[in-house]
Fold this protein.
Amino acid sequence: MQRLTLTLLVLLSLGACAPQRELLPQIPLLSPASLGRSVYAQQQLEAEFNGQSWQMQGALEVTPQGLRMVGLTPFGQRLITLLWDGQKLLEERTAHLPQTVQGERILSDVQLMYWPLPALRAALPAGWRVEQEGGVRRVFDAEREIIKIQCAIPDPWQGRCVFEHQVYGYRLTLDSQLDAL
């Protein structure tokens, strides 16, 4: 559990740190069971925001009963642990992690990347939609594209995906690998 969670952590922190840009509605968190499968994934992450880039490691484990995420620095120091059972989100964090990094936002972005379209569509705020064609998933607020997720291969859990948030101005490049549970 060392790579995916930090990816998501950075994703959240970048969006949360965006300088007073437009605030978008928060997408409600989906239940772990709505993923429709159990996964354990490790990731390497490169995050870009405001001309700076960071590299991190993370891990994500999802079963029908719950989701667990861990985010680590490149040196293996734990920054954040998130536990989500579909009802309650528990968050353990180091003092080194900025308060603007919010666990709920991290999980929301992760779900936009990996959860099935029907589950996402049911949870999106009014006026939002999600579309997918091939390896590209796009999230729209009315007719404005706000998020673009492009994956190199059909299974986003196995390979490289690039997550671009046009409103908050961050980009994440994730190299994922599934491991056996």
Notes: The radius of gyration is 15 Å. The helical segments are 4-17, 103-114, 117-123.
